[in-house]
Structures are given as structure tokens and as C-alpha cells.
């Protein structure tokens, strides 16, 4: 499949919301009756992920097929957020490319640590993050917490 990783563009906002919502339903995190999702950060992507952070899209034929974001948390720590790939494209390398884009950006920005939270239902994501060196550092409610030290 041909795709490219690009910085977020406003014209893709609805596609981002739809992709994230469909994947939250797919993983059992929310029910289809909760769609469309109403999420403040997705309504203001440019503002929320500005500064040393960022938001990237995997796009194929002008369709958003994946997302990843970094949010500056201060103290040289960045939070990995919105890591999603269209469910029928899992295992194709798109997630790897998105993660690599985020890691490269984080290192260029001088961050020393990446943290993330993921729902306990997203077992595929747990394996993905652990495969890429993230360490599970605990759990709060249904959220598992991971971190990766950048060198």
C-alpha cells in the first residue's frame, strides 16, 4: 500500500475523528452509540499539539489511515497520544512508520522521556509498545501506563 506520513492538516479533522472513533469501538473501549466522539483535543488539534509536540497522519489516496501525536508535558517529557491505524491495516508497518516519525521528532526536540497511557482492552497496542522498548510502569483503573527513556 502506498501511503505517506504528513504533519496534520485541518482539512483532515473529520477523518481523524471518524478514524479514532471507529477504532475505539473496534477495541471495545466505547460503544457505537457513543459516536461521533466528542473529544476536546481532537476539536483543537493544532493548538493542543503545538510547540515542541506535533500531530502526524498516515494518508493514502487522501484518506487518513493512521494517526500519532506528541504532547509536551514539560520537564523534557512528551506524551505519545492518538496512536491509531485503521484496523484492516494492522501489521502492515504503518504503525511502525508513525511511531518512528514521533520518536525522531521527540529526539530532535530534545525530549528525554516518552510516556503514554493505553486502555487495558487494547492488548495489541500493549504488545506493540513493549516490542518498541516501552516499559509498563503501572495501571490506574483501566489505563496502563508506559514510558520510554530517550538517549
Automatic annotation (TrEMBL):
One Pfam match: Acetyltransf_1
Coiled coil, from the record: none
Alphabetical list of PROSITE patterns matching this protein: GNAT
Domain N-acetyltransferase: residue ranges: 3-151
Gene3D superfamilies according to UniProt: 3.40.630.30
SUPFAM superfamilies: Acyl-CoA N-acyltransferases (Nat)
Source taxon at top rank: Bacteria
InterPro entries named among the record's database cross-references: Acyl_CoA_acyltransferase, GNAT_dom, NAT_camello-type
GO molecular function terms noted in the UniProt entry: N-acetyltransferase activity
UniProt keyword annotations, A-Z: Transferase
Protein's name in the database: N-acetyltransferase domain-containing protein
